[in-house]
Design the sequence.
């Protein structure tokens, strides 16, 4: 995918990358993640683009809220572990940490943010879904938190996930890295509810319409209470992990489609974790 603006900073409806579309639908905006050649894996510029989109909606008087969704059978699988610089940015490819991600922007947005989880939802995609005001999932969606199998001490997940679904289920997802289906995700509270795949965008729009009718100051006060419930995470520990040897090995193992070296030899299978 190419665009004459590739390599330029986000501005207005341009999100700084050809792999995100900012669409206006009456009073609402949609951010569509569209990078099918790598299953919607998020580059640093894409993460930053979602963050810009949230700020842009909040600054734009004629827009009342935002829907975030993906294309095909993938919502957001997390960050791009393949490397490269597909967006043409000079510096952003080095920002693989928390400086450019949209999680805090989703969590604090004065205007409502709804996620329409259309398919595979992992890593940063699941964090966006959990922190949005309402998160709906297609019946085809699947969910996973593979960070520990990539050598990443994701302390943000360690903070948010137990408060979302309880410590026992959070440990289950984080430590095993196993995949769960949409019905299980809804039953556990990862998402609000499951809807038929073909009805997903209509249901998300209906939720956004209802949320946009709430009194803005009262809505913000309630959101602040929820924000306080989630608490804060250990940013320094996560930054250290992303600069550490386990992440380097996890990254190499992912690219080379093999188990990381820390996996006991008798437990190693074929392919990446």
Sequence:
């Amino acid at each position: 995918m190419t665009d004459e603006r590739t390599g330029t900073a986000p501005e207005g409806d341009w999100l700084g990358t050809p792999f995100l579309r900012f669409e206006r639908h009456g009073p609402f905006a949609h951010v569509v993640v569209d990078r099918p050649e790598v299953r919607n894996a998020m580059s640093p510029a894409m993460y930053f683009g979602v963050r810009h989109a949230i700020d842009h909606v909040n600054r734009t008087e004629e827009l009342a809220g935002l829907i975030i969704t993906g294309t095909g059978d993938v919502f957001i699988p997390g960050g791009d572990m393949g490397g490269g610089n597909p967006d043409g940015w000079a510096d952003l490819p080095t920002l693989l940490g928390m400086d450019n991600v949209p999680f805090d922007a989703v969590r604090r947005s004065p205007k409502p943010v709804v996620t329409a989880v259309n398919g595979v939802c992992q890593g940063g995609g699941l964090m966006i879904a959990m922190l949005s005001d309402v998160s709906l999932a297609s019946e085809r969606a699947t969910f996973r938190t593979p960070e520990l199998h990539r050598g990443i001490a994701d302390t943000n997940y360690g903070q948010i996930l137990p408060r979302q679904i309880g410590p026992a289920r959070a440990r289950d997802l984080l430590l095993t890295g196993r995949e769960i289906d949409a019905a299980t995700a809804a039953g556990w509270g990862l998402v609000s509810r499951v809807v038929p795949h073909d009805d997903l965008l209509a249901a998300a729009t209906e939720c956004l319409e209802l949320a946009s009718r709430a009194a803005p100051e009262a809505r913000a006060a309630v959101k602040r209470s929820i924000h306080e419930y989630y608490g804060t995470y250990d940013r320094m520990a996560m930054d250290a992990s992303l600069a550490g040897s386990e992440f380097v090995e996890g990254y190499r193992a992912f690219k080379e489609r093999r188990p990381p070296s820390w996996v006991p030899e008798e437990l190693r299978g074929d392919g990446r974790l």
Summary: The domain at 20-199+212-242 is CATH 3.90.226.10 (2-enoyl-CoA Hydratase; Chain A, domain 1).
